[in-house]
Input
Amino acid sequence: MVVIHPSLLPRYRGASPIQYALLNGDEETGVSILEISKGKFDAGKIYIQEKIPVQPTIRYNELGLELAVLGMMIFLQKFFSHSY
Output
């Protein structure tokens, strides 16, 4: 089983990765697709990561939506793309 996490792990494990990226003034963030781990949040094998720049004026809701869309697109490409 996999999870899409809105940070470039191992940075910002846990429940508030978007908030921390904004509060810390990160210039880039991204999404990680990883295996669910037992006993520790966001610590499983990372299958893929994708980076994006963080615009200085972006707000939480905008960045959250951007990361959600990016994560889903990467997930679909990685796990459901087929060559016919």
